[in-house]
Model the fold of this input.
Amino acid sequence: MSTIPTSARARSGTASGPGAPAASVRPWAWITWLVVAFVLAGLSVAASAAYSGAVAERDTVDPGALVRWMLPTAVAVHHLALAVVVGCLLFAATVLPRWRAGGVPGDRRAHPAFTRVVTAAAAVSVLWALSAVTVLVFTYASLSGLPVSGSPAFARELAYFVTDLVVGQAWAVVVVIAFVVSTLAFLVRSPAGLGATALLAAAAALPISLVGHAAGSDDHYAGVGALVVHWLGVLVWVGGVAALTVIASTLAPSRSRGSAADDGLSRAVLERFSALAGVAFFLVLASGVINSVLRLGSWDGLFTRYGQLILIKAAATMVLGAIGLAHRRWAIARLGAVPARRTAWRLVVAELAVMAGVIGVTAALGRTAPPVPQELKPALTPAEILTGYLLPPNWPGTGGSPSGGGTGPGSPSLSPPPPSTSSVSAGRAPGAGRGPSAG
Done:
């Protein structure tokens, strides 16, 4: 895996020397920006869920206000934390230098930007693991219509949900991945190990996609595939912007003059990520359009609450694309000037704030019933199993049934029994759609 060339990171200086990074002035500013991002995501999901009716009291099997409000909020925190972890790990593995160069021979002090991203990845991975557990428990409570409690009955049914039902199994896999990644984030420091840990964290997108809204569409494989691509684009894009926010003060000089190494490292980091973010933008946009078509069904779906949230996401995505274009066309080309450099990093922070809001809207979409309902389909007839088509009406042996499912008067049916209509055994509650998803 490649890193920034030595020439771009030589003579980085110490915290007290000329051209020192701003980390010596505000070493913990990145924590503030990440906290602000999570708060914005929470506020966004609360407003979006209230608007769409996702948190409205149910007529039947209502789990209570705590579950209705807590679940989408936990989903928003989970999605944003996952993106931050993946982005920081990828930056540490592939973009940033591990060691400070240009100092005393034999000096093996870690580069401050590298230290910053691995620290952020480890800290946020704990939040990711805890939020994954919260989503798992509250998803079961939402689907079963039971309030969260510590009773033996609740624990017993939760264990059944985790081991026997698809939605529970999917989120159990996410929980296991989150705890493994959190452990590795505290232990691993080699680029190869960090890259492998980032890939493992990104793999959590697969089980989430399998229980997403689009996965229940008529074209299951297209829905799941589009969700996986959407997730990968989001993780790289949002996670990369979060990583840039974390290291901004270590790369943006705090004085009127920055060293050549400061300018070289800043330019190399921003240029590399700008190219990667451009690819991620088109992946997110294209897969988002596919997901929206599958769930909206027709143009009329845009006039529903679900469709209006989709439009908000689309508009915010275009705004983020415009900010990225401004980075590439203007800010990066003028990094030699301190005002332009500061503007570039301020744009990164603004971009993270908008992304946090979009993730909040996404979490609310995962709890909102889409215009195209998810209904259990009738069992396939023997003819459909063998040929993929129904037998024509009045075909010999069909008993005159247009569906072709019979085998003649008095003969036993060969069709398999209809699926159970129990909402809990099917893995979802009435009107709740599938489990929390990317929307």
